[in-house]
């Protein structure tokens, strides 16, 4: 592909009227799109904090995101759907993705990235479905207070990076440590990210060496680690190639 690909997004705000703050305002939603379109284009102001050794790996993925302007029937839309629920909070069981279980049905997931924003239980910030799964549950789910940078967005997840991370999964990226619980035996199937033992939290000091990956150590400032929003700054070229391969393959329906 040549040039920038823009993915149409529908945001389903699923809120409980007993907790009005769950019904986040349009400004908070727009603030999330600002972050997405900076981070996926390597135009985020904090990209300058990538350690010098890895600056050559910083990728502009050439992917952008936009609230849908046409609904599935071709009518004008804001791309924002607001649905009341009687649920206190949602889990990873996909209940938020169906009106029958107190959530909101997806728009056709071969044409729209569905984003559900809601209360989540158990400290969960968000979760995503990888490419190739059932269309009825395809998309990403984000905790309202880890969404965007204004309104209910709360430190340390008030930088909009949960959605960046989850969309990374939606475009086929694995966690940078390979989900092997510190074993050094599995990696993320991306050649230019160092093999690292486990996830990192908070805002680590560089370098943090594991799995004999010295002297530079873990690329903990990657969006696919678990550090705080203020401590993650890049996708690599290898990750960008993997996401764009997904957009040429399993998710080719987005290329118009
Ligand atoms: N725990 C979530 C996941 O595995 C997302 C973590 C996002 N991290 C952040 N700093 N916002 O998908
Ligand atoms: Zn993840
Ligand atoms: Ca590992």
UniProtKB/TrEMBL annotation:
Coiled coil segments of this chain: none
GO biological process: proteolysis
Keywords of this entry: Disulfide bond, Hydrolase, Metal-binding, Metalloprotease, Protease, Signal, Zinc
MF-aspect GO terms: metal ion binding; metallopeptidase activity
TM spans (from-to): none
Keyword Hydrolase annotated: yes
Domain Peptidase M43 pregnancy-associated plasma-A as annotated: residue spans: 105-248
Keyword Zinc listed: yes
Protein family according to the UniProt entry: Belongs to the peptidase M43B family.
Protein name: Zinc metalloprotease
Lineage: Bacteria, Bacillati, Actinomycetota, Actinomycetes, Streptosporangiales
